[in-house]
Structure to design on (235 residues):
C-alpha cells in the first residue's frame, strides 16, 4: 500500500518551472532521501507534499487513511526556532494541535501520546527544560517527537541535520532508521548529508534541472548519474 504518490507533478517558483513532470510512489515503510543541487525544487516539492503549495500540473495523492494533517514535519532549524520560549513538553504537545480541531485544551490521550514520543526518542528527562537551552541535537529530537505526535504513518524532514556536528548528525540518522524499521514510520527527507543518507535510506530521488532519478539506493549508486553526483560531492 502506498503512502504518497506523485503523478506527473510540476511546480513553478517565481514564474520559473523548478519541477517538471515528476512521478514517483512512496510505499508504506519506505525511507526516501531527496537530493539535488540548490535550485532544483527540493523545498518546493516538500511544500507540495505537505499541501502548502499546489502543483501547476499533475497531482499528489495520499494513501488510504492518511490526511494532510496527519503528516509529521520537521523543518529546517531557524534562529527563531532556537530561541523559542517554551518548554520541551509544550513544544512536543503542540504536535497534537492539528488533530485537536476547535476543541480547547489537550485530552488525556493526547498528553499520553506526547509522553510516549518523549520516551521513544529518549528525551523524557528533558520534559521541563526550556527548548532554547538545548543543544542542536536535542532540539532536533524534540522537533522529531513533535512531528510524531501529528504523524500516523508518514514524516517529512527538510535538511534536519543542518548545523549539527558529525556526532549529532550520525545519532539523528540512527534514530530515524529506528523509527523507520522498528516503528514502521515512512520517512521522506531532503538532505545534503549525502553519505549518511545513502547509508540509511532505501530509496533515492535526485532532482536536477533537466531530469530526475528515482529508484533504490543501490540502483542509484550503480547508475551513471549516481556516480557523477558522488564525484561532484567529493570535489
Amino acid at each position: 500500500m502506498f503512502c504518497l504518490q506523485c503523478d506527473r507533478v510540476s511546480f513553478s517558483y517565481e514564474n520559473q518551472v523548478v519541477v517538471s513532470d515528476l512521478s514517483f510512489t512512496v510505499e508504506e515503510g519506505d525511507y526516501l532521501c531527496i537530493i539535488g543541487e540548490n535550485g532544483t525544487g527540493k523545498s518546493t516539492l516538500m511544500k507540495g507534499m505537505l499541501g502548502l503549495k499546489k502543483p501547476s500540473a499533475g497531482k499528489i495523492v495520499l494513501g488510504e487513511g492518511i490526511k494532510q494533517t496527519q503528516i509529521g514535519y520537521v523543518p529546517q532549524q531557524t534562529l527563531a526556532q532556537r530561541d523559542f520560549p517554551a518548554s520541551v513538553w509544550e513544544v512536543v504537545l503542540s504536535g497534537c494541535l492539528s488533530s485537536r480541531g476547535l476543541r480547547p485544551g489537550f485530552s488525556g490521550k493526547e498528553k499520553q501520546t506526547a509522553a510516549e514520543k518523549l520516551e521513544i526518542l529518549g528525551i523524557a528527562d528533558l520534559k521541563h527544560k526550556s527548548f532554547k537551552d538545548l543543544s542542536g541535537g536535542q532540539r532536533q529530537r524534540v522537533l522529531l517527537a513533535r512531528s510524531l505526535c501529528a504523524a500516523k504513518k508518514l514524516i517529512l524532514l527538510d535538511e534536519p541535520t543542518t548545523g549539527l556536528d558529525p556526532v549529532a548528525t550520525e545519532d539523528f540518522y540512527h534514530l530515524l532508521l529506528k523509527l523507520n524499521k522498528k516503528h514502521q514510520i515512512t520517512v521522506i527527507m531532503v538532505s545534503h548529508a549525502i553519505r549518511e543518507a545513502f547509508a540509511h535510506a532505501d530509496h533515492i530521488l535526485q532532482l536536477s534541472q533537466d531530469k530526475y532519478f528515482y529508484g533504490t539506493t543501490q540502483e542509484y549508486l550503480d547508475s551513471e548519474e549516481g556516480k557523477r553526483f558522488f564525484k561532484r560531492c567529493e570535489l
Summary: The chain has a mean pLDDT of 88.
